[in-house]
Amino acid sequence: MAEDGRPAPQEETPLAEAPAVRFESVSMRYGRGPEVLRDVSFDLPRGSFQFLTGPSGAGKTSLLRLIQLAERPSSGFISLFGRDTALMPRDAMPDLRKRIGVVFQDFRLLDHLTVFENIALPLRVAGQARRSYAEDVEELLHWVGLGDRIEAYPPTLSGGEQQRAAIARAVVSKPDLLIADEPTGNVDPAMARRLLRLFVELNKLGTTVLIASHDIALVRSLDVPVLEIVDGHVETTGGPR
Ligand SMILES: Nc1ncnc2c1ncn2[C@@H]1O[C@H](COP(=O)(O)OP(=O)(O)OP(=O)(O)O)[C@@H](O)[C@H]1O
Question: TM segments (predicted)?
Answer without folding.
Answer: none
